[in-house]
UniProtKB/TrEMBL annotation:
Natural source organism: Kineococcus glutinatus
Protein name: Antigen 84
Annotated segments matching region Disordered: 108-134
Superkingdom of source: Bacteria
Length: 177
């Protein structure tokens, strides 16, 4: 991955807002800041290793050999120095890759945990909603049955009262006593 691409990715991250169960924006920002700081540190270390290698190469080309013994020793030392600088640069790159992999794995693990928690919360809400709906339906059925029973009782009472009133009118009593 080129440093331009890395810079673009780290300096201009794009996230879409979550509808439900998303991530806290401040936590995402904090994670991106930590990842950016780590990558910048590793890039700085790599650049320092590359500078050391370039300095060693420059010294190799600038130092004239002092006779046969000096000419043999200087290139040998320069070659060793160059090898050490290359090893240092390789180690810095490997460290950067390991750190990037660790950060990515950590982010994926945390994202999976939050996604699982969001799914569980959604399932809990849905289950509670279904349970409450069943309770309300049962209460509604009970109320409808109570209403039907009350209407029957009122209807029977009205019929009974009408019968009593008719009996009084037939007996000619006029008003009940």
């Amino acid at each position: 991955m080129s440093s331009t691409t890395t810079d673009e990715i780290l300096h201009t991250p794009r996230f879409s807002p979550a509808r439900r169960g998303g991530y806290l924006e401040t936590e995402v920002d904090a994670f991106v800041e930590r990842a950016l700081a780590t990558v910048l540190d590793l890039q700085h270390r790599l650049a320092a290793s590359e500078d050391a290698r370039a300095d060693a190469e420059a010294r190799l080309h600038a130092t004239p050999g002092a006779g046969t013994g000096g000419a043999v020793d200087t290139p040998t030392r320069a070659l060793r120095l160059l090898e050490m600088a290359q090893q240092s640069a390789d180690a810095a790159v490997a460290d950067a890759q390991q750190e990037a992999e660790r950060l990515l794995a950590d982010a994926q693990e945390r994202a999976a945990a939050r996604e699982d928690a969001a799914r569980q919360a959604a399932a809990d809400v849905e289950r509670a909603s279904r349970e409450r709906q069943a309770e309300l339906e049962a209460e509604t059925a009970d109320l409808l049955e109570s209403e039907r029973a009350a209407r029957l009782q009122v209807h029977e009472l009205v019929r009974h009262l009408n019968g009593v009133l008719e009996k009084y009118h037939e007996d000619g009593a006029g008003t009940p006593q």
